[in-house]
Amino acid sequence: xxxxxxxxxxxxxxxxxxxxxxxxxxxxxxxxxxxxxxxxxxxxxxxxxxxxxxxxx
Length: 57
Known about the structure:
Elements: H1 2-18, H2 26-56
């Protein structure tokens, strides 16, 4: 769900930029990329925990 929301935010920012409402800065893009990385790390960690629980439970 978090990734979908972040994808939607990125899309909305790109549309706003294309329509001339705002400028998507390098800093904004870096924040979005960092959030994607954090979400991927969280997902991987949760998947690893589930795998461990399934093996032992």
